[in-house]
Amino acid sequence: QTIFPKEFQEKYLVSRGIGTGVCGEVKLAFERATCKKVAVKIINKKNFPSVGTATRNAEREIEILRRIDHPCLIKTEDFYQTEDTYYIVLELMEGGELFNRVKAGHGLDEAVAKLYFYQMLMAVEYLHRNGIIHRDLKPENILLASQAKTCLIKVTDFNQSKILEGETLSRTLCGTPSYLAPEVFTHAATTGYGPAVDAWSLGVLLFVCLGGYAPFYEHPSRPSVQEQIIQGEFTMVPSKWKGISDQAKDMVRKLLVVDPSLRLSITSALKHPWLQDPAMLAQANKLMYPPEDSDTELAHNKRPREDEEGDGN
Ligand SMILES: N=C(N)N/N=C1\CCCc2cc(NC(=O)c3cc4cccc([N+](=O)[O-])c4[nH]3)ccc21
């Protein structure tokens, strides 16, 4: 049972668990003063392999979490720590993890996948513009703001986010390789690797959202996942991909390119024909930048109070 710091307890009332990530859990909490619902991500510091990198790594992540500000990136509202645990107070993402929406074995509607994918691209473009490589983009790290199909999504979990030096490559290889780009296995130890790794992972994410299954997966009669990735070997099973547009398939194929220098960049992906869809773009922008209350119906119905200086019009 998690014990919370006193000052945390004073400000928040913790309720039930709402999601169990690999590195700790997420709890629902209420801000006592406002009864506002929040999520609390609890990260045990001992989860990191060695103390040295742990604190540096965690501090870097906390620094990233504080610094980032984009509608499609998780926003931290408050932060506490004890000697062995971090407590990160976040906005509630009632739609939960994208993982639970696609694991049903069939993909999302193409229009929904396109809306989500566009938001992921915008989030990752923002990260890259701010010198941050996510490096761990996967369905568990994409959160949905509501249960609605057309909703805001947010990228989270910046545990792996940084430009890697070679010595932490071993740590990378201990995670699930399914979403890791080929160059992580091949060039990483020598030349390091850049933002293109996120483009690859987004390609895998898009493949899963459209096809409902992973492009690279363990199977007894197949080469290892790592081998499939390095070869860029994947199959679009016709029964799973019928009804998906050629442009959507083209986007996936241009992202799942083994050579990072030939892979579609985030910026070019945003210019791909599949995303030149005014209806989707309008919907995405409305979700990302909702009109403030002041310039919608609320303003028109507001009556100036007696003591308010009206200009009498
Ligand atoms: N691992 C690491 N070093 N950093 N990770 C991080 C960094 C801090 C933010 C963060 C947030 C989450 N996840 C949620 O917030 C979340 C999951 C979830 C599931 C159902 C419902 C709700 N909800 O109704 O809110 C949910 N919110 C997972 C990982 C991380």
Low-confidence stretches: 163-167
Task: Bin the strand percentage.
Answer: 15-25%
Q: Can you give the helix content as a percent range?
A: 25-40%
Q: Tell me about the biggest sheet? A: 5 strands, antiparallel
Report on this structure.
The protein is α+β, with helices and mostly antiparallel strands and 313 residues long. Helix content is 38%, strand content 15%. It has 14 helices and 8 strands. It has a 5-stranded antiparallel β-sheet. Strands 6-7-8 form a 3-stranded antiparallel β-sheet. Strand 2 and strand 3 form a beta hairpin. Helix 4 packs antiparallel against helix 8 and helix 8 runs antiparallel to helix 11. About 2% of the residues have low confidence. The site of ligand YIR has 22 residues, from strand 1, strand 3, helix 2, strand 5 and strand 6.
Give descriptors for this structure.
313 residues, alpha+beta, globular, binds the ligand N=C(N)N/N=C1\CCCc2cc(NC(=O)c3cc4cccc([N+](=O)[O-])c4[nH]3)ccc21
Which SSEs are present, and which pair or pack?
Blueprint: H1 6-11, E1 12-21, E2 24-31, E3 36-44, H2 51-67, E4 76-81, E5 85-90, E6 96-97, H3 98-102, H4 110-129, E7 142-144, E8 153-155, H5 169-172, H6 182-185, H7 188-191, H8 196-211, H9 225-231, H10 238-241, H11 246-255, H12 266-270, H13 278-288, H14 297-301
Antiparallel strand pairs: 1-2, 2-3, 3-5, 4-5, 6-7, 7-8
Helix pairs in contact: 4-8, 4-13, 8-11
The chain binds the ligand N=C(N)N/N=C1\CCCc2cc(NC(=O)c3cc4cccc([N+](=O)[O-])c4[nH]3)ccc21.
The site of ligand YIR has 22 residues, from β1, β3, α2, β5 and β6.
